[in-house]
Fold these 2 entries.
Entry 1:
Amino acid sequence: STSCAPARPRFRRSTVLPPWRREKRLLLRGPIATLGEAMRALRRGTRCRIIVSNALARFALVPFSTAVVGRAAEEALASHVLRGTHGERVDAWRVRVAPARLGEQRLACALDAALLDAIPGAAQAHGVRVSAIEPAWAVGFNAAYRRLPASCWFAVTEPGRLVLGLQIDGEWRQLAAERCGDEPRPALRQALAREA
């Protein structure tokens, strides 16, 4: 007769902490001075992830084009799309485009270039290391996307700001960002009714 023993892992416990557990998250909602104050409270050498409020970010859906190849061309197209909504202010922004499958629209985010340039200086002055700078909407989506169905509305709310996106079969089809009051639930209901 043979018996089966339960499989045992090679190591009982991991001795390496995942990076997201070793870093602090700081929310940037206003001027860089407020971020500096938050950094001052951290121990020197701390890694921190800067989460930029959606009130400071601008988003757009960028259509797919076979003529656009490479990161620089994608960012130029995204700047063109954002310029249609925001005008010449786009020239003072830094634009990044999220990857997407071939043939799908891409999500673009623009942040003020002066603000982005000031963050590493503030971090160095306070002895902390910046591991990433991300908009709050992207942080929320990245935390939830594995649990989301392929087709759904996704929203991130914070006091004063609402960002809402519609994904159908994993592709972004609609995106809306708007101001709202300190209680975002009524604004979310109105936005869903309007966009749907």
Entry 2:
Amino acid sequence: FFQAEDGIRDVERSRGLGDVYKRQSTKKGSIMGGEIIALKGVEAISIGSEMSAKTKIIVGHDPDLNIKLKKIHDAFEYCDNEYVQISKSLRIDALDPQEMKKRMERMAQRDRLLYIDKLKRLKKIINAQNELKAKQQQLLEEKDSLAQQAEIIVKKVLYSRVTIQIGEFQKRIENSLSGLKIKLSKNRNEIDYISL
């Protein structure tokens, strides 16, 4: 949980993932300008200002999860390509065991061994895809849980033009608001504003 430090924090435009201050002892600070990324939440007296540069607050978002999900996506593509290539080389339209058995009986011993080897590779690819699906589901659930638990607490003023992102949902604040907690709604497609 990120809590703004004593006084006003004026952050220069971020480099990469943003400027994240980890001191958690006070709740007296304000955030003006820059980008803050916090896994669980942000608590501040005020966020943004009438005159400040762009301010963006991101909570419930873990860039590492997105990197892991991208790697899984890439692995799926690789498995799909391998599956298609092997299937074409085996001339398999559908995995019909009877047709495969007849084909193998007509093959020479050496060709039969190559055919069996390719079938084993197909089985490994299918197993890998199943493992990837399970891992992807686990990461998506983790990502969703992180977004659902995240919150932004603003004791005094959340100024207009501040961008709020909770999980993957992002919204620019159009009118200044005061004394509120901001969370992702249960339906995950809007933000709930809860008065303090």
